[in-house]
Write a structure and sequence with these properties.
The chain contains one helix and three strands; from the N terminus they run E-E-E-H. The chain is mainly beta. A three-stranded antiparallel β-sheet has the order 1-2-3, with no helix packed on it. It starts with a strand and ends with a helix.
Length: 70
């Protein structure tokens, strides 16, 4: 959905469903991946669970309760 180069990192906004999107921050260790994807292109995302962070501000009250964060 969107790609933003921010110097040391590139930020990718990936739409998973009509209502759900994720933001991926990738360090620019090398330049190989900088032009690898086009906006609107279908991609596969594989992220190790230990590298995922859910921001509380994006959670609904129901989701907070499910995670034990009230």
């Amino acid at each position: 959905e969107n790609i933003v180069y921010i110097g040391t990192d590139t930020r990718y906004v990936v739409r998973l469903t009509y209502k759900t999107k994720i933001v991926i921050r990738r360090q620019n260790i090398n330049r190989f991946h900088l032009n690898q994807y086009a906006i609107g292109e279908a991609v596969k995302v594989n992220i190790p669970v230990e590298n995922i962070s859910m921001l509380e501000e994006n959670l609904s009250e129901k989701e907070r309760l499910k995670l034990g964060k009230n």
